């Protein structure tokens, strides 16, 4: 049995070979804060070499998956400028998020994402790193960053890997919402369920099917699939994405978009 970290921003429930990981800030719609990221990374670090944990189920407490990033933190970080020769704290924070996504994506365990309520921005990206993603019919997905003057930086590589460039372009430039059933149609998710009971039944069936498979073969199959997916290393893609994110947050559009969201008003976009 693995020694799991103490956590508060996420909740861990180990049931035999299945680790249930709940995003546990429901009062704020489960934002992917830096503390959430740290706790997720610590959890996956604890099970990285432990083959007794064969499945990780990721879901959100309180009936919603995740509304994405913490915009108040982005607004504060935008004002921070690196000193000469020092690392950019905003870039480091975004790159940390990318490292979390990569760690989940490349974990040797099978990852099951269960989406209810909203999966926006980073939550959309998180749903895309599930080996199996199961959603409620009425779940709401969206790449909402461009509506805030930002860019879906660290999630873009995972979104494109998941649904392809054509679909990613549509959602990336429009911020359009899509339902859980539509998410299945475009390839974000694999199955949708009409009710809570149907959702839990589908999750249980997915776990049971995975547990019929050899854990070593599952881990090696994931490695082979990622090698086949594309020639550009994920580290390089995420480094570029972090640079783009920093530029967007500190741009006039980024400052206006975040301010408008926090002020609960429409943004006043100016021609680029």
TrEMBL record:
CDD domains named among the record's database cross-references: crotonase-like
Q: Family per UniProt? A: Belongs to the enoyl-CoA hydratase/isomerase family.
Q: Spell out the protein name for this chain.
A: Enoyl-CoA hydratase/isomerase family protein
Mark the transmembrane ranges: none
Q: Gene3D superfamilies, alphabetically?
A: 2-enoyl-CoA Hydratase, Chain A, domain 1 (3.90.226.10), Lyase 2-enoyl-coa Hydratase, Chain A, domain 2 (1.10.12.10)
Classification via InterPro entries: ClpP/crotonase-like_dom_sf, Enoyl-CoA_hydra/iso, Enoyl-CoA_hydra_C, Enoyl-CoA_Hydratase/Isomerase
Q: Which domain of life is it from?
A: Bacteria
Query: Which keywords describe this protein according to UniProt?
Result: Isomerase
Organism, as annotated: Methylobacterium terricola
Q: Which PANTHER family match?
A: ENOYL-COA HYDRATASE (PTHR42964), POLYKETIDE BIOSYNTHESIS ENOYL-COA HYDRATASE PKSH-RELATED (PTHR42964:SF1)
Q: What is the lineage of its organism?
A: Bacteria, Pseudomonadati, Pseudomonadota, Alphaproteobacteria, Hyphomicrobiales
Biological process according to GO: isoprenoid catabolic process
GO terms (molecular function) for this protein are: isomerase activity
């Amino acid at each position: 049995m693995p020694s799991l970290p103490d956590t508060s921003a996420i909740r861990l429930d180990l049931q035999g070979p299945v680790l249930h990981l709940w995003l546990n800030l429901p009062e704020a719609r489960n934002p992917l804060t830096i503390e959430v990221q740290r706790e997720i990374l610590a959890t996956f670090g604890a099970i990285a070499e432990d083959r007794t944990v064969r499945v990780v189920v990721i879901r959100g407490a309180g009936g919603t998956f995740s509304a994405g990033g913490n915009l108040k933190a982005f607004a504060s970080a935008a004002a921070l400028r690196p000193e000469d020769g020092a690392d950019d704290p905003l870039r480091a924070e975004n790159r940390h998020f990318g490292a979390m996504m990569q760690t989940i994506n490349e974990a040797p365990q099978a990852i099951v994402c269960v989406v209810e309520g909203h999966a926006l921005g980073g939550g959309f990206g998180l749903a895309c790193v599930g080996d199996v993603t199961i959603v409620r019919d009425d779940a709401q997905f969206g790449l909402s960053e461009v509506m805030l003057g930002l860019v879906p930086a660290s999630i873009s590589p995972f979104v494109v890997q998941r649904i392809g460039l054509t679909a990613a372009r549509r959602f990336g430039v429009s911020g359009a919402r899509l339902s859980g059933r539509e998410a299945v149609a475009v390839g974000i998710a694999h199955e949708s369920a009409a009710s809570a009971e149907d959702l839990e039944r589908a999750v249980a069936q997915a776990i049971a099917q995975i547990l019929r498979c050899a854990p070593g073969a599952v881990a090696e199959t994931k490695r082979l699939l990622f090698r086949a997916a594309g020639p550009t290393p994920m580290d390089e893609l995420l480094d570029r994405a972090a640079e783009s994110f920093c530029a967007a947050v500190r741009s006039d559009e980024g400052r206006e978009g975040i301010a408008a969201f926090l002020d609960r008003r429409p943004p006043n976009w100016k021609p680029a």
